[in-house]
């Protein structure tokens, strides 16, 4: 993943906010990158631009040779479904579906057949094998997030984006979730890009980017 002069400006005139200022970033395939910075510094804006959820004011995002924002809406949305997995702070599970059906949702939305073997492998790695027939409210926060991680991985995307994945968890289940997220991502060779406030979690990554007032810098 590579960006060139990525810039996002919200508002106009006196209300103008430069949320992201001319960011040029390269993230290698299979790398684990964390993005840290205070509230309002531009972390979500950067994540949204990298993952095709929002359009930049200036600059470009390349995934391999693909110029993300040169795609029309339909192709962009198809590319996102194929190439990206998302994990959120609020687990965003569908309350009336079992863990297994939640995990398979990206496959079902694409009108493909669920891959039972891969689901078994993922749920073993994420330690939720015995929870697959349960509804989200029957699971702990950590278990719900592990279901959400399996859902992010099930369609075999290349890149996983996670926005404060442990923000709703206590520190013990938070570190458990992070351990399983990183080991599962590495096992399957995924690129992992996470936003976090937590310095300890940021430190687990191969590389760290810090953002302050929309300016991105690599932390050494
Ligand atoms: P973070 O994720 O680090 O908390 P954000 O990327 O959400 O930061 O926000 C960066 C800056 O852009 C902040 O000053 C925020 O107020 C502003 N911002 C974010 N979204 C919008 C929007 N839709 N309209 C106007 N300003 C916005
Ligand atoms: P929060 O910052 O409150 O934790 P989330 O991480 O759940 O919010 O969501 C971040 C942003 O991504 C929100 O603007 C939300 O609307 C958007 N979003 C959430 N789920 C999806 C999805 N499946 N596809 C596209 N956008 C999404």
UniProtKB/TrEMBL annotation:
The keyword Transferase does not apply. It comes from the Bacteria. SUPFAM superfamilies: P-loop containing nucleoside triphosphate hydrolases (SSF52540). Signal peptide: none annotated. Pfam families: ABC_tran. Keywords: ATP-binding, Nucleotide-binding, Transport. Residues 1-219 form the ABC transporter domain. Belongs to the ABC transporter superfamily. PANTHER family: CELL DIVISION ATP-BINDING PROTEIN FTSE, LIPOPROTEIN-RELEASING SYSTEM ATP-BINDING PROTEIN LOLD. This is ABC transporter ATP-binding protein. It comes from Alkaliphilus serpentinus.
């Amino acid at each position: 993943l590579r960006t060139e002069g990525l810039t996002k400006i919200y508002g106009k005139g006196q209300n103008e906010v430069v949320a992201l200022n001319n960011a040029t970033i390269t993230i290698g395939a299979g790398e684990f990158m964390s993005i840290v910075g205070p509230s309002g510094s531009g972390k979500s804006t950067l994540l949204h631009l990298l993952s095709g959820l929002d359009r930049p004011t200036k600059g470009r995002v390349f995934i391999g040779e693909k110029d993300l924002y040169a795609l029309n809406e339909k192709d962009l949305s198809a590319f996102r479904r194929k190439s990206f997995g998302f994990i959120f702070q609020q687990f965003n599970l569908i309350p009336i579906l079992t863990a297994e059906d939640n995990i398979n949702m990206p496959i079902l939305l694409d009108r493909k057949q669920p891959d039972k073997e891969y689901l078994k492998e993922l749920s073993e790695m994420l330690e939720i094998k015995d929870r697959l027939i349960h509804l989200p409210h029957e699971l702990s926060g950590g278990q719900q997030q592990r279901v959400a991680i399996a859902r992010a991985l099930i369609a075999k995307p290349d890149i996983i984006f996670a926005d404060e994945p442990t923000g709703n968890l206590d520190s013990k289940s938070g570190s458990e979730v992070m351990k399983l997220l990183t080991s599962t991502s590495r096992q399957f060779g995924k690129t992992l890009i996470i936003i976090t406030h937590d310095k300890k979690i940021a430190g687990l990554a191969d590389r760290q980017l810090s953002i302050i007032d929309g300016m991105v810098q690599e932390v050494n």
